[in-house]
Amino acid sequence: MENKEKSQNIINNVDKENTIIPSQFKRVEILLADGLYDKADEVLERFLDTDPTNSKAYLYKLLVELKLSSIDQLKKYDKPIDTYYNYKKSYEYGNLEEQEILNSINESIKTNIANKRLSTIYDNAIRLKNEKKYDLAIDLFNVISEYKDSLNQTKECQCLKQQSIYSSAKKVMESKKYAKAIEMFNKISDYDDASIQIDKCIELIAIEKKESIYKKCVFNRELTIKDYSIVLEAYNNLKTISDYKDSKELLTKYKELLEEFDVQKKNRKKKIAKISAIASGSIVGVSANLCPVDPEGKNLHSSVSSQFAEGIRQAGGLPMVIPMGDPSLVKDYVETIDKLILSGGQNVDPSLYGEEKTIESDDYNIERDQFELALLKEAVRQNKPVLGICRGVQLINVAFGGTLNQEIEGHWQGLPFGTSHSIQTKKGSVVEQLFGQASRINSVHRQSIKDLAPNFRATAFDPRDHTIEAIEAVDGHRIMGLQWHPEYLVNEEKGNLELFKYLLQEL
Q1: Please, are residues 306 and 319 in contact by the beta-carbon 8 Å criterion?
Q2: How would residue 1 be classed by pLDDT, with cut points 50, 70 and 90?
Q3: How distant, in Å, are the alpha carbons of 17, 29, 106 from that of 11?
């Protein structure tokens, strides 16, 4: 404490006579006060001609260099001064007292700068807190944890964040998005009655699931022999909710219907016939998109555009839809098909490439991501050719270590029909072979490749913003991907039908 007070006294007395400002420099003081830095410098240079080791003269030259009118202004300077030539010379030729003064001024400047930085960070953290950006605010308060009340501010932000999440989760729960609500409540499981709310959501999901199964199992028409497979599915589903409503009575009814058929024999024959058909043709498996069929998105259909089937058939192949399912099924799927197409649809979850979600969107399905990643991995293991379309090329890039832009502008034309912009292809690439050096494409994506996986090269670009529009493997794998939807352009633009032929005949 004594050393600090001593240092401060030194700084306070720095401009007193007989310390560091002798009377022979009064002329220089006047010139500096009037802002006549060039004239002051001339005086100092003449003085140094006669006394080249005068530390005080170099100190005044430092003021001239920094365009400062006094030592008081030097104390308030916004940058450390120990790197300047004149400072070094003043320090070098000064006595111990003068050196201590110079060092004290420099350290005081550094302290002021540090305090200003802390104050700026603190003010920014308060602003973020007021804007309800609690995570960002907490990060800043943690950086300056010992400054002012940063620790208390961090605790308050954490509490406000929990309150905000809880309130949002309740609204989501009220909108019957129970799975999303559970995810949100889990983030604050120790807050208030969040754990109770999670149990309620689980219970409501169970009831909702039972109701969904029940509705699918109740038919409003007379069943015929053609519907035996539907009845069998309903029967098996009803067994899982036998305690719900009149499921027991329905089970009895459907069992009586099933007894009229030799279900196992029929199913076995159909499987054998299907296997025979698959074995005789060139099968292209297409991963199915998940599409909601009700406003609330409770019911999802697995679907693939008929344009895919048309393109594959025109190219001489047999299309087969691969619905999302358990990853344990992918080995059988891939063994059945000859080629694999990963279709478009939902955004790829940022967690798969090490990022947090930065956009407001519900258009994600991690289960589909995981299933199709398993499909891709198995296809690579079995050395089956893979073509990624739109979301498919993004998923391929992520699977091999690349990253994505979560939101870009200028690449959403709405419906995929027709074209919206041109591409430039890489010379010697497959897309250049198929589409030429330039071609028109459609564009219905809001995400794109950011960091390209090292296993691939970019073979087509959007000349407007250099968005990667096509990639090809360079490590021996039979994989390529397109950011547009060629299935909608098979009969409209050159190269798109040829693409499907290339997939079937060469890839």
Answers
A1: no
A2: very low
A3: 13, 18, 10
Element (H, E) at 372: helix 366-381
| Joined tokens for residue 231 | 């009845």
Burial of 329 (0-12, 13-18, 19+ CB in 10 A): middle
The answer to whether 262 touches 289, Cβ cutoff 8 Å, is: no
Which residue in 132, 126, 128 sits closest to 149, CA to CA?
A: 126
Mean of per-residue pLDDT scores for the chain: 87
Q: Mean pLDDT over residues 56-73, rounded?
A: 94
Q: What does the pLDDT read at residue 3?
A: 47
Residue pLDDT, tens place only, 10-59: 445 444 433 444 567 899 999 999 999 999 999 999 999 999 999 999 99
Cα gap 135→154, rounded to integer Å: 10
Task: Give the percent of the chain with pLDDT over 90.
Answer: 66
Contacts of 213 (CB under 8 A, 6+ apart): 237, 238, 240, 241, 244
Active-site residue 390, yes or no?
Answer: yes
The pLDDT of residue 262: 59
| Active-site residue, from 469, 472, 487, 493 | 487
Taking only the tens place, the pLDDT of each residue in 334-377 is 999 999 999 999 999 999 999 999 998 888 999 999 999 999 99
DSSP output for 67-86: T-SSHHHHHT-SS--TTSHH
**Could you tell me the fold of the domain covering 281-505?**
Rossmann fold (3.40.50)
> Of these residues, 432, 469, 485, 493, which one is catalytic?
485
The DSSP-derived string for 99-142 is: HHHHHHHHHHHHHHHHHHHHHHHHHHHHHHHHTT-HHHHHHHHH
Find the catalytic residue in 29, 378, 390, 421.
390
At 288-311, the pLDDT tens digits run 987 777 777 667 778 888 899 999
Largest Cα separation within the chain, whole Å, is 122
- DSSP annotation of 444 reads B
Distances (CA, A) of 148 to 117, 152, 199: 13, 9, 41
| Domain range annotation of the chain | 2-116, 207-261, 281-505
Is residue 291 among the annotated active site residues? no
Three-state secondary structure along 218-255?
A: CCCCCCCHHHHHHHHHHHHHHHCCCCCCCHHHHHHHHH
Whether the predicted model's global pTM rises above the 0.90 cut: no
Count the Cβ atoms, other than its own, within 10 Å of residue 473.
Answer: 18
User: CA 91 to CA 85: how far, in whole Å?
Assistant: 10
pLDDT at 4: 46
